Amino acid sequence: MNLSRRDLLKASGLGAAALALGGAGVTSASASENPAASTQLLPKPSGKRVVIIGGGWGGLTAARYIKKEAPEAEVVVLEKRDTFISCPISNEWLAGEVPMDFLTRDYFTAAKDFGYKMVQTTVTDINRETRTVKTTTGSIGYDYLLLSPGIAYDYSKWFGNDTQAAERCRQECPPALMSGSEHVALKKMLEDFEGGNFIISIPDGAYRCPPAPYERAAMMAHYMQKNGIKGKIIILDPKAKPAPKGPGFMAAYKELYPDIVEYRANSLVKTVDLDKKEVVVTITQEDGRTEEERIPYAAANLMPVNKASEIIAMAGVSQGKAGWGMMSSPTFQTKADERVFVIGDAVGGYPYPKSGSIANGQGHIAASHIAAMIQGRPVLKDVTLPQNICYSMLNKEEAISIGVTYSLMDDKDLNGNDIKVIKPKMTENNTRSTALGKTTHSWYKGMMSDIFGS
Ligand SMILES: Cc1cc2nc3c(=O)[nH]c(=O)nc-3n(C[C@H](O)[C@H](O)[C@H](O)COP(=O)(O)OP(=O)(O)OC[C@H]3O[C@@H](n4cnc5c(N)ncnc54)[C@H](O)[C@@H]3O)c2cc1C
Question: Which residues of 301-316 are buried (b: 16+ CB within 10 A; e: fewer)?
Answer without folding.
Answer: bbbbbbbbbbbbbbbe
